Amino acid sequence: MGKTTGFLEFEREVEKYEAVENRVNNYKEFTIPMDDKALKNQGARCMDCGIPFCHSGCPLGNLIPDFNDNVYKGKWKEAAKILHSTNNFPEFTGRLCPAPCEEACVLGINEDPVAIENIEKNIVETAFKEGWITAQPPAARTGKSVAVVGSGPSGLAAAQQLNRAGHLVTVFERDAKVGGLLRYGIPDFKLEKKVIDRRIAVLEEEGIVFKTNAHVGKNISVETLKEDFDAIVLCGGSTTRRGIPIKGAHLKGVHQAMDFLKQNNQRVDGVSDFEEVLYAKDKNVIVIGGGDTGSDCIGTSNRHGAKSVTNFEILSKPATGRPANQPWPYWPMRLRTSSSHKEGAERFFSISTKEFLGDKDGNLTGLITTEVEWVFKEGERPQLKELPNTEKQWDCDLVLLALGFTGPETTLIDQFGLETDFRTNINASTKNYMTNVPGIFTAGDMRRGQSLIVWAISEGRQAAYHIDNYLMGKSNLPLKDSNDLPRV
Ligand SMILES: Cc1cc2nc3c(=O)[nH]c(=O)nc-3n(C[C@H](O)[C@H](O)[C@H](O)COP(=O)(O)OP(=O)(O)OC[C@H]3O[C@@H](n4cnc5c(N)ncnc54)[C@H](O)[C@@H]3O)c2cc1C
Ligand code: SF4
To answer: Which residues does a 6 A CB cutoff place in the pocket of ligand 2?
Structure first.
């Protein structure tokens, strides 16, 4: 523990944001860096708990007290080494993770928790700036080859671990650029894409081969993959979008959030030849869905110059504090207000959309909602009840459906002949991440369903260990929650 009295002396501090009126004019990240002294003080707040709950709150098992202590002591290189021992890509989680570690931090019982995520981001940014993050190609090759299908965080983590174990790794990505939802879902103002490119350059130097516009099951056959590789790991994400099967859903102006977000990220990247331009300028926008995707649509619509942005959530409004039935150190379902919400959006909870309205040319002009209530009964699933006489009509020109994803697409599942679980995800237990077909593994959202970047990285790392074990009969790759294996 660096400073015994640190948590008594210093308040929690995180990076501040640029003013809304400046940041909504562009797609750049808008955090204002903290100086070294302020970051050291934040590291000093860590109490180096006997049982560090932060560590088990983190899906990666990050060694949080250890890197906090090194930041306090100004040993940034050591901190970067510790951080990378459990997390391949802290530059993604340090920007985008909802930080379950902070909700589990012991200091959070009666104080503000340690600013773990902000410390993480600053460690990795310092490491890149100082040139400490360099390619680590394996000392020897095993002669085995692995195909990774999908280049989101799970695919990238699996690829890096497997390459480090000495296997020849090829990543197949159907999109024009790699990164999965990091590239084409999450907007640039949350994650500038040069952050992905910087890491991909390291992975390429380590020897990983990336093939883009390579759609497995379409322009690359499953048979070719099976013939050419000793093992395959499917990291295709959970990409089947949930629709809203109500009257008027076909109207011009009702769009899936992912079409809107993907197009905007492509536009920021210089692409302009879109079949249909999705743009919110001067429009009354209604975003249906109150999660991360909905929040990203709000931030993007405001940057387009929307006339108004309204957000509907069917769930009831959560409390701002920690609910009594979700005590520390559990993840609490509380009201979260993102930087995009603060840029301007009216939020409505307990509201259900009943019908979209259009003009004679098939253009969206509005929608109708009712208020709803959730009824909870012991032993039963919560029931949604519409409240009588609460019908309301809203004017709008653009509706963005941010309703989540129902599971992975079926192409790979059908062509590889894979079993799925009751949630339509690919069935593979955490015991070895292997599907019902020997040699075919899966990780990330494709296995666990729509989730988080931190879980995707964790899954990729875990799957890599089991694939290495399958190919070699043993593995020296790190495995989470194992005491007998090194965390290198
Ligand atoms: C809009 C949005 C915002 C989000 N914001 C956050 C956030 O702030 N923080 C957070 O922690 N999480 C966030 N998430 C969730 C997070 O992005 C995902 O959990 C994570 O990206 C899942 O990683 P993955 O590698 O499993 O899959 P993905 O990132 O979905 O990547 C799958 C990749 O596989 C490719 N693919 C699929 N099928 C094939 C095929 N047959 N052949 C070749 N390639 C294929 C896809 O093109 C894609 O590139 C967000 C999600 C969305 C949609
Ligand atoms: S729980 Fe909080 S205070 Fe305790 S070791 Fe982890 S970060 Fe430090």
So the answer is: 46-49, 52-54, 64-65, 68, 105-107, 114, 116
